[in-house]
Amino acid sequence: MLANLGDWLNDRFGWRGIWEAIFLRKVPHVNWFYTLGSASLFVAINQAITGILLTLYYVPTPDHAYDSVVYITTQLPFGWLIRGLHHWGASAMVVLVVLHLLRVFFYGAYKFPREATWMTGVILLIVVIGFGFTGYLLPWDQRAYWATTVGTRIAGVAPYVGDFLLKIARGGPELSAVTLARFFGTHIWVLPTTLALLVVIHLYLVIRVGISAVPAKDE
Amino acid sequence: MNKQEQQDYLDKYKKAKEKGVPFFPDIIFKDTIVVFIVFIILIALAYFVGVPLEARANPNDANYTPRPEWYFLFLFQLLKYFPGNLEVVGAMILPGLFITLLLLLPFIDRSPKRHFMTRPYASIAAIVVVLGIGLLTWLAVNEAPPPIQAAVVDKAAALYATDCANCHGQGIVIPEGTDLHKLIAAGNHQGMPAWGGDLSADEIDMLAGFILSPNGSALFTQECASCHKSPVLASGNPVQLQKVFDEGKDFPAHKDLNTPDWKSTLTPDQENALLNFLAAPDGQRLFAINCQGCHGEGVGFSGTKEELRAMIEKGGHEIKMPGWKDTLSADDLNTLAQYVVDPEANSAGSTMFGKYCAACHGDKIPAAPDEASALSIIALGGSHITMPVWGEILTAEQLDALTSYTWDTSQGVGVASGEKLFASNCRGCHGKFGEGGPNPTFPGDMIFPISSSEYLKTRDDATIRNIISQGQPDYGMTPFGSAYGGSLSDEQIDAILGFIRSWEANPPSVSPPKAPPVVTQPQELSASQIYGSLCAQCHGVNREGTASGPALDPAQLRAEFDDQALHDMINNGVLKVAMPGLGNMFTDDQVKKLVILVAGTETGTSTGSGTVPKPPTNSTVSFNDQVLPIFQAKCSMCHSSATTFGGWDSTSYQAVMTSGDNAPEVIAGDPDNSYLMQLLQATNGAFMPPTGKLSDEEIQIIMDWILAGALDN
Fold first, then answer.
1. Record: contact A29-B27, CB cut-off 8 A
2. Integer Cα distance of B108 and B130 in angstroms
3. What 3-state DSSP class applies to A173?
């Protein structure tokens, strides 16, 4: 019965080919360090799901942001868990992608034929850092407000275009409701779509070229 | 890497792959284990550590030490080494260079070597970078001031600065007897918000202490804050506080802590300031904390205020109760003793208590454990040893405040004084029990009963206070609040409110009489009748003036105004002082007669008809034809008599003018202060309708209507 259904679907979708290409492909013997990429992907999915749940209650305005975060943390059933997973997931993400990068670096896996995989990976690292920076402001507490004040101020030190960059980052000369709105927009729309696109390319390249083998001592 | 090397690698990789394992299930299995461990760690962190959330962002708090998320700390630290003009190096050039290097790494390092031992330069560079970032992070963590130390600021001063200073400036002078705690918690109707929702009781006490003794707050921060996180002592017991000084190092809680002997460390002035901060000289709070347990709501006292203060100061040892055994018979003594132990047991005791004891004991019946001890106390008399010697415990300021409050309660403020105030200010129109009756200023209009449970349940305190304070000019009710030109202080209005609220518990037993419709038509009233029923409310029956209106001296009026000016004033009212205009109620002729009545005739000027123009017909906007349709289309789905969101009903003129949590929502002639306009124009942050602003035209119509006096036309 199930086999019949599988056949029926395969005739139409051709999923067995995809399954074989992705899951049944042979890979070299590798060690536990090779799980860091998958762990990063898992945390990214965790961030997406908890992030979506948070937006159901979070209000991105200075009047209500703090209160809505307090509400999520203290009143909402399992709100503490959702916010806790999202908060700690952010740190875990940074740790995992940096370890992943170091693994790739020390195994020389960025070399031929995986240069493009490495480059998308580096851009993904920048996106992850962007997530951390924009997400930090959203609770609108003292820590968020002042860290972002200092953080955006850094944009202002660029020669010639500093003031312009600062205004773009803050949406005005000071941190305001506009800043919160654009950090929120960046955090939930711009960065996730970028991340999703890059992850797809990154994974496609990993599957197409194959994961690197652990280099031998003489390699 | 040349073509040959590339091909070599591909061949080698192919072999490695053939010797390898399938991705599923071997690799997936490992991944799943790691993912599971990561997930468990995340849940554990969320559960055991939680997510820190600091105080709400406060853009005015420039003292806050910003701390970025931990993974940015190294950048933060890096910036410190590039001060001034060099900042761009640390902020832009170095990070930019690093990212570019990282991105282009495959093209920079093109050797075929892969094992990290075979490419020492790259490996060493990577290790240096990792260690460098680690070192910078470590330095940042250690150099930044620890958060606890950064938090040692004068919390009370900070609270004052954020919550109070915007309106009150550097400090507030508090009138004696103010219930400061309640005032801060509940706000007042002159625009002060109620802080009770945002601040805890301790914080309010702390604020009250700071307002009354700012120096004490600074001392607390300096001397005590390293151990006492926040002055939770503010609501504490002054007896204990005084013991800290009296017992010095022997004070039980300080015994093992190696604290200084505060008595010798602080000057008497400092001690005073500190005590005033910790137990604010706020009579009501002091009474509630220290006296209520024995004295209940208040103390009956018939002496002078000075005697009261002396009595509180000296405490119970000085209060001698006479021994009654020589004055009363044994039977009487027994009756009294029985009554004191159980007031229900012997009703004869009640009369006797009233006769002999109530002068000092007031309504509060002193409790005794059993009849025998009660009898011996009554028979032998003695001092009231359970009452402490407050003079040794409280500071002079606290004693003053406590005396002042106790004195006021003994004079019967609260419901009783509210009743008096109601009788003198409100009874004329609202009736003895708030049952309403004919409206003296609007013939034919009936004043709604304000004592019905429906009325009282649907108006909150703020609404009723607003109505008393601001009046309802459109119904002829003048403002009574001193802020609006009336004669009543906030406290008096609160007392009236208290009295009105007392109806809720005990509804008036007399049902409102059915008042006959008013027969007199306004046009038939003579000038002196109009003066007597309307003008005299503020200007006095004999034009002598009252707290709400100036005296009307014909000579003086003549010197300042001509007929026309006086006519306009009476006809249109004077918005600034909330004097209602009479032009809509009475004929032009009656207004002219009123002018003559109050100011006599203007010598040399004819007062014949023709010199005085008709009242300005600026009421071109019609409520029924223009304003009401807007309300019906845009507001009534939420604001009707069936669904009164915000307490406001937009479906009739009457309701528009009187209903609403912020009633009146419309202040005739003053669109800027009409809450309705503030909402429509979003001038106060909040806005209506929630579905989007009304068109400019619609807003203009409503504004014109309010400007023209918000008439029912």
1. no
2. 19
3. coil
- At B95-110, the pLDDT tens digits run 999 999 999 999 999 8
Q: Which residues contact B105 (CB under 8 A, 6 or more apart)?
A: A105, A110, A118
Q: Which amino acid is at A28?
A: P
Query: Which residues of chain A lie closer than 8 angstroms to B12, CB-CB?
Result: 213
Do the Cβ atoms of A143 and B67 come within 8 Å?
Answer: yes
CA distance B632 to A134: 44
User: For chain A, which domains are there?
Assistant: 29-209 (1.20.810.10)
- Judged by CB atoms closer than 8 Å, whether chains meet at A111 and B109 is answered as yes
> Is A218–B114 a contact, with Cβ atoms under 8 angstroms apart?
no
Res A217: pLDDT: 87
pLDDT value of position A199: 97
Angle between helical axes of B415-425 and B490-505 (0-180°, round to 10): 100
Please tell me the distance from the alpha carbon of residue B238 to that of residue B511, in angstroms, as a whole number.
Answer: 49
Q: Please give the pLDDT value at position A57.
A: 95
What tokens appear for B392 in the block?
A: 């040794």
Contact A27 B52 (CB under 8 A): no
Domains of chain B: 1-53 (no CATH), 61-151 (1.10.287), 155-285 (no CATH), 320-383 (no CATH), 413-505 (1.10.760.10), 540-599 (1.10.760), 623-707 (no CATH)
* CA–CA distance, B666 with B697 (Å, rounded to integer): 18
Torsions phi, psi for B69 (to 5 deg): -60, 150
Q: Which residue has the tokens 């809680």?
A: B253
- How far is B398 from B285, CA to CA, in rounded Å? 10
Pick from B19, B59, B68: which is nearest to A147 by CB? B68
Q: Which of A33, A145, A209 to mutate to test the interface with B (most CBs of B within 10 A)?
A: A145
Cβ neighbours around A113 below 10 Å, total: 17
CB count within 10 Å of CB A123 equals: 17
Q: Where are the alpha helices (DSSP H) in B471-587?
A: 490-505, 527-530, 536-539, 554-560, 563-572
Low-confidence stretches of chain B (pLDDT beneath 50): 146-152, 234, 509-520, 604-618
Tokens of A181: 């709105």
CA B377 to chain CA centroid, nearest Å: 47
Q: Note the pLDDT of residue A198.
A: 97
CB-count burial class (<10 Å; 0-12, 13-18, 19+) for B438: middle
Helices (H), B561-636: 563-572, 588-599, 628-634
A177-185 and A162-170 are packed helices; what angle lies between their axes, rounded to 10 degrees? 80
CB contact at 8 A, B548 and B538? yes
**Angstroms from A147 CA to nearest CA on chain B:** 5
User: Quick check: B432 and B421 in contact, CB under 8 A?
Assistant: no
| Packing angle of the helix pair B201-212, B155-163 (nearest 10 deg) | 90
Residues in A touching B103 (Cβ below 8 Å): 119, 122-123
**Nearest chain B residue to A133, by CA:** B69
In which residue ranges of chain A is pLDDT below 50? none
A19: distance to nearest CA of chain B, Å?
10
DSSP A34-50: GGHHHHHHHHHHHHHHH
d(CA B279, CA B402): 11
The CA distance from B154 to B413, in Å, is 37
Burial B277-305 (b: 16+ CB within 10 A, else e): bbbbbbbbbbbbbbbeeebeebbebeeee
Chain B 88-107, CB below 8 Å of chain A: which residues? 88, 91-92, 99, 102-103, 105-107
Q: Which of A81, A110, A143 sits opposite B105 (nearest CB)?
A: A110
